[in-house]
Structures are given as C-alpha cells and as structure tokens.
Design goal:
The complex is a heterodimer. Chain A is built from six helices and ten strands. Chain A is elongated, with a radius of gyration of 22 Å. Chain A starts with a strand and ends with a strand. Chain B is mainly alpha-helical. Chain B starts with a helix and ends with a helix. About 6% of the residues of chain B have low confidence. The interface between A and B is medium-sized, with 23 and 33 residues.
Chain lengths: 198, 516
C-alpha cells in the first residue's frame, strides 16, 4: 500500500527540531523518513512566512514532511508527554506545532536542454525509469539534427544536435522528493519546486 | 522570421540608396566636391606624417582620391553599424537564420555601401578605397588568421587529466600564455577540449569554462599582434610588434594574476563540494602532444609578422612598395612577403599534420570562412567612420571624439572604457580601429607621446571582449564546444550578471586606477 505523508509546520530552532525528530526515531528504533521541505525543494513559504523568516533570529517556521506512521506516533508521544511530565512540557509541546495536514498529492515541473547525444540519453533514461506511483504529464521531447552545423564555428554557432524537453511529474510525495533530487543533481535538468495539494 | 528579415533588409537598401540616386540625377551633389576639397587639404596631411604607416600616409600619391570626413553625413556610417549590429544581434535572436544566411547579410551591407559609395563619390574614389582596403589591410589580416588557425588546429593535446583547482589554474595559464602567440582562437581551440575532459567528472564546472573565456579567449591575446585581431590591425597601421608586448605586459600580468587568484579560490570551493573525487587518471592515458611540428610553423608565423614590420615596410618609400595604384603605394614588399610566407606555412601545415589530429580538434574551414565573409564587409564599410573620426571634434562624429578628450587632450580612462564598452557588444577589431583613429590615427605619435592612450585603446579592446559572449569570436566557439560536452553554460545575460559584471568589471576598475 502506498505510504501517506503529513506536512507539519513547527516553530523553533532547526537543530532543536531536527534533534527531536532524529532522537524520536532512535528511541523508537524506526527508519521512518522525514524531509525538511525547504531542503527537499518543496514550495512552502507564504509571504508572511518569508517576512517572519527574515526578521526572526532564532526561531523559524519549518515545514516538515513525515510519514503517516511517524506523525501518528509522534503525536501520541507528545500528547502523552504533556499529560505525564507537565514540568518539562514547555520544551516539547504541541503549541510549537502550528499545523498538520495530510498530503493528498504533489507535483513538480522540469525542463532540460542539451546539445550532446550522450547527455540526452542520460536524461531520457532518468525520465524513463520512473518510480512506482509517479506519473509523467505534458511531456514534449523535441530532438533536432542540423547536419550543416557540424564542427567548430566562430560567428554563427549552431549545434548539430539538440534535445529539449519539459514535463510535469506527479504522485506520491516520498517518491517525488527522491526523484526531484536525482533530476536536480543532473547539471542539464532544471527542476521547479514541488507543489503540495492537501 | 526569414521573410521579415529579408523584407527589413530590402527596406533598408531602398531608403539608403534612394538619396544617393537622387543626388546623382540632380547633377552630382556635394560628395564629389568633398573629394576635391580633400585633395587640396591633403598636402597638409602629407607634411605632418613623415614616417606614418597609417591610412593618411597611403594617400601620399598625387592622383589618390581622398574623402574629407568633415562634411560627410552620418548616414555613411550606417552599413558599418549594420554589419556590426548584425554580428551582435542575429546569433542571439535568430541563430538559425544567421547560421544559414550570415554571408548574404554581410554581402548585403557591403554591396549597399559600395553602390552608394560609387554613386556618391564616383567609381574612381570607391574603387581606390576598395583596392587600398583589401590589399593593404584585409588580405594581410585574413592570411594571418588563416595561418594561425591552420597551425593551431594541427596541434592536439591528448591524454586524461583530473581537473583539480591546481591543474585547472595550470591549464588556463598555459592557454593564456599561448594565446598571445597563436591567437586567442587557436589557443582556445587547442586547450578547451583538454580542460573539458579533465573536468568531465565534476558536477560544478561552468566557472572553469567562464574563466577560460576570460583568460584564454580574451586577455591572453594581449601581448602581440598575433594574439587578437585588434592588435594586428594596429600593427598594420604602424604600431610596432614589440611595443604591444612591452606596454601591455604589466596590465595583462595584473589582470591574469588577479583573475587566476579569484578562479583558484572559487574552484577550490566547488572542488571541496564534490563528493566523488577520482583517485587517479581515469583511463590512465598519458599526456602527449600531436602535431608538434606545427610549433615550428608557429614560430614561422611569428617570424613572418616581425619580418614584415622591419623589411621594406615603409609605404611612403617608393623602394619599399610592392604594389601601387592611383600613384599610391598599396602594399609594401614586407607585407607581401608576409602574406606569401603565411600562405606557404598554411599549405605546409596542412601537408604535414596527420588527419586524425585535425579530426580530434574538429577542424574545419568554417570559422575562417566566417571571418573572411564578415570582415570583407567590415573593412570596406569602416572607411567612412574612420574618415569621420579623423575629422576630429569638428567632424560628424565629433560627439564621440569630445567624449574621450578634454581641452584637445585624450582622456585615457575614457578611451579605455569607451573602447571596452563597445568591444563588449560589437566586434573588438573594428572598435579598436575606430578609437585608434579617434585618437588621431598616427601610429608614431600614438606610440610616443600618446602611448598611454594607445595602451588604453589596446587594453579596452582586448580585455573587454570577455564581457559578453559576443565581445570576441572565440567566446561563442568555447561556449558552443562546452555545451556539446554537457556543460550548462549560462545564457547571454546570465554570463554577464553572474560572472563578467561581478568579476571582470571590478578587475577593470582596478586596472584603470593603477594604469590610467
């Protein structure tokens, strides 16, 4: 069954939040995944958040994508903690959790252009091997050959071969984050930010 | 697009030629007078230039027609501007059209100008300038580029290297040093593929190619007339071979040291971010040079150019003249010998170089054909702006002249930046000639009292060709080769915003403070 993900919005220092989540995973002995949206290339910021981000020195708003199991367990643990260890709850408290929403779908656009056949083959290969649960839309690859343009030119340079394409990838957010990372690492692919739907 | 461009060019032709035709039908206008006035005033010019190699001196013959720039209409500069703007704009806005029709566009501007020139000034004057320009300037220019291109295309650096910051600095420095002796195009052609191969494993390598453009394709060509076409045009106009070397060396050294230091820091930063560094040579192929005999031919090219400057090189001395027409020396024996030696070197290089070496360099005649087709028009259309500039502040281009002079004295900073600004967007060779003439056009005077001005013009033309992709011909070539090797080169404006404005402009400001 396809994994479900939640987007949590937490306010606090990055290291504190990262430590909390990592510590929780270690304590639970689980390998659930989580992503800080900014690092994973997910479009998150509203104008208000950008302003808060700029003016605040310490505490910032962080959007985090968590696996459903992770989220449920974390929520339970924090609720329990707040009732049993009230003294310490000011440090780990749901009040820092601004929101939690189930991610229904996600998508991002990409475009690429290259003048070398081996690089076109690499990119085509990346797009061909899509992970399960990810779909490609509006894909329009264009391949051009210009035999006249062979060789070195100074004032009228044109390329003998051109491959360009753009498209949109959508589907499971977990798979999409990993795929976006792979595409982003290719120097000839430009990726847009991932857009979430709740 | 194609139809629109042709329609536009037809309209330009109609509007440009109509006034000339009307002037002729009304009984030959002012233009023929301008030739006569100039013939009278020419005696004054001849008195002034004892040892000139420049254009004025060419008109030393009694029967030579001469154009007086003072009374020319600015419209005469339109074809010159047209061809320069075509070279600058078409590759960006209509690359496919330009690739297939650049020769026709160049021919269009050349023909439009020459018809108008013939109608306006008479065939005697127009053909005099045609012969003088092509024999005295265009043929020596194109044969030098042909020889350098053929010889450099016959040398190939083989082997696999691992692109570390130190190695990249060494490779770029070698290319920079070679550029002054084999031309920026030749050095770029020789070094770009080894640099790309060495850095193939790296994710972040765009900056390597950009600094290669800065240094190998532009600034490296500063030291000799072989390095960059503007400096060779200066040499043809009488600037001595080693004046360029000795005077440009301090400026070039500052620019190269500074840019290589910036490059090293930047490259070290990106290198540290690479996660998979190759431990040893991938493939293990050893470094080797193919076509070594071409280095001897390269020395021959250098020798031929130096020789032409010292042996029978005075166009005003009848004993030195090899070809004359209209009672005027058109080509010296020295220059004729240079042309013949360069053609022989070209032929020899083709004969002795292995086919595989040239194939490895992707060698073809296309680049030299491009230069020939475009510069054939640039040289002839340049006649009018040069005449206008020689008229000084009273001439039709007096506004330009007064911008770079104060109380009749040249402002070197202004010359450096004005030559540089135009060289960034138009081809730097004609830009150099324009400002050379703005500064008086007398090579002897410019190498003497006005040596700082000539230095400013030379440095502006050579250095600032790196400011944009269109500033110098090899920039586009390097960009194109890098893109085919999978390197995502920045766009036209991306190159300027990310690299040339933040890195080159402060470097040039520093050079202005130190030297001008």
């Amino acid at each position: 069954m396809e994994k479900k993900y939640y987007e949590l919005v937490l306010e606090g220092h990055y290291n504190a939040i990262y430590g909390l989540l990592k510590g929780f995973l270690l304590g639970k002995n689980q390998d659930w995944t989580f992503y800080f949206s900014k690092k994973a290339g997910i479009k998150i910021e509203t104008l208000g958040e950008i302003i808060v981000d700029w003016i605040s020195l310490k505490n910032k708003v962080h959007h985090i994508i968590l696996e459903e199991n992770f989220y449920e367990e974390l929520k339970k643990a924090v609720e329990k903690f707040n009732t049993t260890r009230k003294e310490e709850s000011k440090f780990v408290n749901l009040k820092y959790l601004k929101s939690a929403q189930l991610v229904k779908s996600a998508q991002f656009g990409f475009e690429t252009k290259t003048y070398g056949r081996p690089y076109a083959a690499e990119i085509k290969n990346l797009i061909k091997k899509l992970p399960e649960g990810v779909e490609l839309h509006n894909y329009n690859p264009i391949e051009k050959e210009n035999k006249d343009a062979k060789g070195v030119e100074l004032y009228a340079p044109e390329h003998e071969y051109t491959f360009e394409a753009s498209g949109t990838l959508s589907g499971n957010i977990g798979e999409l984050i990993e795929l976006r990372k792979t595409l982003d690492e290719h120097p000839l692919v430009e990726v847009e930010k991932i857009q979430l739907k709740f | 697009m194609k139809k629109c461009i042709f329609l536009f060019l037809s309209i330009v032709m109609t509007f440009y030629l109509t006034p000339c035709v009307l002037a002729v039908s009304a009984g030959h206008g002012d233009e023929s007078q301008k030739v006569e006035q100039a013939a009278d005033s020419h005696a004054q010019v001849a008195e002034h230039g004892e040892e000139q190699h420049g254009e004025e001196a060419h008109h030393g013959g009694h029967h030579a027609p001469h154009i007086d720039g003072k009374t020319l209409s600015l419209l005469w500069a339109l074809p010159f501007l047209g061809i320069l703007l075509s070279i600058a704009i078409f590759p960006l806005v209509a690359p496919h059209f330009w690739h297939h029709h650049y020769g026709k566009v160049s021919l269009f501007w050349g023909v439009v100008f020459f018809i108008a020139f013939t109608i306006g000034f008479g065939p005697n004057t127009s053909f005099f300038y045609l012969v003088e320009t092509y024999l005295g300037e265009f043929i020596p220019f194109i044969t030098l580029l042909l020889a350098l291109f053929t010889v450099a295309g016959g040398i190939r650096l083989k082997g696999e290297l691992v692109g570390s910051p130190k190695l990249n600095v060494v490779l770029i420095f070698i290319g920079t040093a070679l550029a002054s002796w084999m031309g920026t195009t030749g050095a770029a052609m020789l070094m770009i593929r080894p640099v790309i191969r060495a850095n193939a494993w790296r994710k972040k390598k765009v900056h390597v190619i950009v600094f290669f453009i800065f240094l190998v394709a532009n600034i490296g060509g500063s030291l000799t007339p072989l390095g960059d076409p503007p400096l060779f045009l200066g040499f043809l106009k009488g600037v001595s071979f080693f004046w360029t070397t000795t005077h440009m060396l301090p400026l070039m050294a500052v620019a190269v040291v500074l840019l290589l230091a910036i490059f090293f820091v930047l490259d070290s930063y990106y290198y540290s971010k690479e996660t998979e560094k190759p431990a040893k040579l991938p493939g293990g192929a050893k470094i080797a040079i193919d076509g070594k005999a071409n280095f001897i031919l390269l020395a021959g090219v250098v020798g031929a150019v130096i020789f032409s400057g010292i042996w029978h090189s005075n166009i005003n001395n009848p004993a030195d003249v090899a070809i004359s027409a209209w009672g005027t020396g058109m080509l010296t024996k020295g220059t004729l010998a240079q042309v013949l030696i360069l053609l022989a070197i070209t032929f020899l290089s083709m004969k002795i170089t292995a086919k595989e070496t040239r194939e490895g360099n992707d060698f073809s005649w296309e680049p030299i054909l491009e230069v020939a087709k475009l510069f054939a028009t640039i040289f002839i259309t340049m006649v009018m702006p040069i005449a206008m500039l020689k008229a000084g502040v009273d001439g039709p281009l007096g506004a330009i002249v007064s911008q770079v002079t104060a109380n009749g004295e040249p402002v070197n900073k202004a010359f450096f930046w004005a030559t540089g600004a135009l060289s960034s967007f138009l081809d730097n060779a004609p830009t150099y000639v324009v400002f050379f003439n703005t500064a008086g056009g007398d090579a002897v005077h410019l190498m003497g009292e006005l040596s700082r001005t000539l230095l400013a013009i030379s440095a502006g033309a050579v250095f600032m060709g790196a400011n944009t992709y269109i500033g110098n011909a090899p920039n586009f070539m390097v960009k194109s080769i890098a893109e085919e090797a999978g390197i995502p080169m920045p766009s036209f404006f991306g190159y300027m915003l990310k690299y040339s404005i933040p890195i080159l402009i402060p470097t040039f400001i520093l050079i202005t403070i130190i030297f001008f």
